[in-house]
Amino acid sequence: MDLRTRTRPTTLDVRGARFLVIGVCALALVAKMILAATKRGPADVRFFDAFATAIAQVGPVRIYEHPMPRLPVYNHPPLTSWMLAGFHELENLGIPFGSLIRAPACLADVVSALLVLEILRRRRTLGTATVCAIGCALSPVLFATSGYHGNTDSVAIMFMLLAAFLLVDRRAPLAAGVAAALAVSVKLVPVVAIPALIVAAVRAGRPAAVRFCAGLVAVMLVLWGPALAAVPVPLREKVLEYEGGRWRLWGLVRFADLAGASDSFVEALHSDFRLLFVLLCMAAGAWLAWVRPTAAAYAVALSLTLLLLLSTGSAVQYLAWPVVGLCLFGLWEGLGYGLVVGVVTVIVYSGASAVRWNDWALHLAEAGWLLLAAGIASGVRRALTEPPAPLPGEHVPLVAQRTDRPATPAPPVDRPHR
Fold this sequence. Notes:
The protein is mostly helical. The chain has one domain. It contains 18 helices and no strands. The protein has helices at residues 3-38, 43-62, 78-92, 97-120, 126-137, 140-149, 153-169, 173-186, 194-203, 206-230, 232-240, 251-258, 263-270, 274-291, 296-310, 323-329, 331-350, 359-385. Residues 75-224 form the Glycosyltransferase RgtA/B/C/D-like domain. InterPro entries: RgtA/B/C-like (IPR038731). Keywords: Membrane, Transmembrane, Transmembrane helix. The chain crosses the membrane at residues 16-35, 100-119, 126-144, 175-202, 208-231, 273-290, 296-316, 323-348.
């Protein structure tokens, strides 16, 4: 039997799936960029523009101590500061800032969809991997948060998923550490997935763990070191201790408000329980990475999806955090959440303010939270029962042809008597 004849169709199938996903991603990217170019967007677009102007005046390090009384707290990590400095220069060349600030998230969505395809095709059928990747590319939530809102959430999520892919599927722990450092230097949210990656690296062996940590620490020192040395207190107060929006719009604080909980209890959810919830997200991802060391992407997805489930902060852009992870868990998990919460984003962005949700948006968000919880449970069950993915370069053996003739027993082997 000619092995090349048997393997060629599989190669073409994978190539065709990639072309299909890339084509859908390209169409989605064009649509998002048209949306970015033609819509003014929410207030965050103007805030980022003002931040970029301030960074041009004082630099990406001193921005954390620079007073900006008419603007929200500047809670973005150092890499975002450098990005905004670059955007200010491009804006001076005549490129609209509204398109610039949305472009990274739109491009990150393309990479995330391709990562979903590459991660899942080694663990499930190629058809399942393809439809999950397309579902990620066409998620209504990402159209709203990336193409309209203008924030860095999708970029941070993409880098963290890339780190998991590089660590396990490509066996490139040094590059994985670099990607993880870039993720938390864009936005602090993915820090909850760092323990899962460290555990997966440790389970891969001491050399992998050393290289992963070396890449992580080296890039963190380069990006965070100047700000930590120059303005440690403002950086800690504005970035590391930022608590998120305190509106009662989503999740646990929303249900507590519906149940008639006291203001002191809701305040405790915002402050006293916040660190506990973050630690739970970290522990859950680390546990899954320990019991399923080849499923680092699922462990990252668990930490990020669980973070929104337990989040006591409320902001419409936060709804993008679990989209890619749910698409990794399965088509219906990603589709159910994406459609329901996608409607929430449309309703909210159609209103006067992104922090004023009408009753329709609030009730659909409650349903979206329940779908998120169900998707997490389904994803964890699948991660625990799914067979381990083959290592890079490891070929799945071909199935032998059926034959009606019984196999001929092997002749006895003469062994010397002892």
